[in-house]
Amino acid sequence: ALKVLDFGSAYVNWSLDYLNEKCGNNRVYVRRNTIDDNYRKGKNYLVQEIEFKSYVKDLIENNQISKNSYLAVQNLKKAFPQIAEELKMPSFVEKLHAGPFLWIARKDHYEYTHMDPDDNIL
Length: 122
Prior knowledge:
This protein is α+β, with helices and mostly antiparallel strands. Helices cover about 25% and strands about 20% of the residues. The chain has helices spanning about 10-15, 15-25, 35-40, 50-60, 75-80; strands at about 25-30, 45-50, 70-75, 100-105. The termini are close together.
């Protein structure tokens, strides 16, 4: 979708390195214990506030912390104000549920079945 629709410079610029450079010191909320059976069933998880650069470091290192973490549903305007304007929303998007939002997960992250309040473009 990012290739076909005009979403601004987000598609071109956004990478872990770029986001880390622009927003590394920002505080974000990361889900923990994501490899636990209770998380996989959508029953329970912990949330920890950390600096974004710490989450990126764990992802790059592919360490045990990264395998048990997920940066979910970060409000772009609140968590990443430095880059929020880089994402241009197409005209057909009439209402965002207080978003747009950003999710970043490691390869092979398992997310329990659920519905988000608004439709998504994946």
